[in-house]
Amino acid sequence: MKKTFFLSFLSLTIFFNQNTFSQDVMPNIYLKTLSGKSVNTNTTFNKNGLTIYSFWATWCVPCINELDDINKEIEKWEKTNVKIIAISTDDSRTKRRIRPLVSGKNWGFNVLLDENQDLKRALNINGIPHTVVTKGKKIIYRKIGYKPGEENDLYEFILKNSSD
Amino acid sequence: MNFNKFNFLILFFLITSSFIHSQVIKNLNSSFESYSAYYLDDSKTGDFSFDKRFRSNNYLNLKSYTGENWNFELQIESYAPSPLLNYSSNFEKTNISTFKVQYNKNKINVQLGNFYEQFGSGMIMRTWEDKDLGINNSIRGLNVKYRINNKINFTALFGNQKKGFKYSKGYVVGFNSEFDFSKITKNDSTFLVGLSYVGRNDQKTKSNFYNEIANLFSARIDYSSSSFYSNFEIITKSKDPIIVFGSVSETFIKNGNAILLNSGFFKNGLGIDLTFRRLENMSLFSEKEAYGNPYNESIVNYLPALTKQHDYSLTNLYVYAAQPNVSFLSKDFMKAGEIGMQADLYYFIKKETLLGGLYGANIAINASLWNNLDGNFDYSNQNYQTDLLEFGEKYFSELSIEIRKKWSPKYDNILLYVNQYYNSRLLEEKSGIIRSNIFVLENTYKINNNKSIRLELQHLSSKDDTKNWSAIGFEYNMSSAISFYITDMYNYQNPVKEKKIHYYNIGGSYRKGAKRYTLNYGRQRGGLVCTGGICRYVPESTGISFSAITSFF
Question: What ipTM goes with this model?
Fold first, then answer.
């Protein structure tokens, strides 16, 4: 019985990992603004173009590097009509560092809080940094991790897809 | 048989119904994570002393969002042939871990099955998943949310708490309400109020001397304006027995409480945050006997250490874990909780100034101090009376200064200094106080758009415990997909010659889109491992490990 169950687990894993099926819609989840107000992801996305959701945390060095690197050329990004939302996954241990940090960074994009990681879990995100790009509510791109220079690849992707 | 019929029926139902329901399939979103290790004997740290050398943790998660209203979720986990070291034996073989059906429309959100929930800061209740620490304390039951509008919402929940593949005897019940009174304040400031109740009924240990139910009430307010914020939370916990030497006491029964006060100010590159917290007898387990278990199973509320969360290996040798518990081990060892504070200062030095240079610099200073509660402690009668704002013996203090600076488009570095005081006697029931000074220098050099190298140098100096350590790390990012690293930690002044051990690791990773694979060979230090403010002890081990993380959309 145990063996059967394990085998079915394995086959299920292989089956679902063939990428046959795809969920491509951004789920509706309640997040909080920096001042603690509730907002639903249903109302935050860019209705006329692309939205980048960048999952980060105050303790995640590569996440902050990525957001800093995007912010350095924010005017260039804004010309593509993309909306950038930095989703903080900090929990109550570190969330009080968000506002001082964001203030010090002077980031030119929205920051929303996913304190108990409801959106992160709903999108099956296993680690940060993690970037999700949507067109309307449709998910068109996902990426795990960040290394210096990768923001250029993301920019190229945005440029290519915002014109269609 | 390791899985029960109930789970099997659920699996059968979910799979068959999902195949029938093409909508579910069409919107399926899956992720798979696998962490495996093959443990080796080690001439320095000893032979592998457990039964299975190959161990593997695997998580398959399936979710479906059909239209706007219905969500389905199923997570199957496999720990075959055995879970990795340091995971609870309640994780055994392959089984359904969590499942959920959710209905979401307009003002109503109903969840049936395993749900994750947090009230306020989580101090009264938080259920979440952290695979690194083996935590999944979700509640299986019913969760109903009702949002009257964007300003007022209510949550009611009821269920049994998960521990491994098993569930608690007895239940957790909760109620939460949040009100947004921002209109009565001026301009763009916000004013929020929250009230919560959590009840824990433990059917596992019963007695005529105490109630099965512990009742907790929380009230909190949250004010925020464009450059200032302040929040305050207070919790009371009704009488609940203390665990004395591993068993539930029938005579030592006490109330608990918590106070949290946090304020911050931020403007033009300057940010200051101050936090005060006092916890007295505040730990809450769905089964009282789970107190002190090394796997953090059955915890109902989230009480993280309020200290800086460090990134570097030597800054994580002497880590503070929050002390919410009552612990009476001897006349010289009596704790009833913790009291203390933390301060953070962030400052951005502007570009083109004397200190800022061409690119500016970031400075972050953190200071924290945590002490035992003070009061009258009576060991022979097993009782205590605490003072509200008095500080008892010091558990831990820390001062850290971090400077991040970019020197050129290609080169930047981080300089970190940390001074720590760690009361090993009260925190780990060992002897002595450990005072240490740590220096870290991290350098990153961009070779071109996709190639970069990172060099990390660390040193810890201490006259106490195992004395000085040094550590080095080197990382080479070959392309956006591939990177390699080599690290070593060496306790070169350990007074015991055999314990002067190199903890080396070598490995690499490959990633593409939402997939990531890693391979590592090396020696892990035993001791306290902490993520997100929750810590647990792990034994030393040597081996080869492999991980695969994939999400699909």
Answer: 0.85
